[in-house]
Each structure stands twice: as structure tokens, then as C-alpha cells.
User: Fold this.
Amino acid sequence: MGNLKRISSRKIFQNYIHSWEEKAISLFLSLLDDQVSITECFGAKYDGKSESGKWFDH
Assistant:
């Protein structure tokens, strides 16, 4: 989480929302830890930035 420690939680949230609004995958991925794990409510799971990027683009 190196760089994220220097960014306020408010700024992280604003960037997260902006990444979705603008479909800015590079911004979205920059907010994630390399070992991120995203789990959908129906059970699908995405591990790592590569899979998370595919999830974001879907």
C-alpha cells in the first residue's frame, strides 16, 4: 500500500468514483493493492490487478 498511505481516504474514494464515471481503468487499478481480491455478491472472485482489470472492463 506504499503510495496509498500518503493519500487521504476521501481522495481515494473520490478517485474510485471518478474512475468508474470516466471508465478510467488505469486510475482504478492504481488504487488497488497488487494482491487485491474482489468477490461479487453471487460468488465470482477476481484475484490480482490483472483479473480486477478484466472485471472493471466487463
The chain has a mean pLDDT of 90.
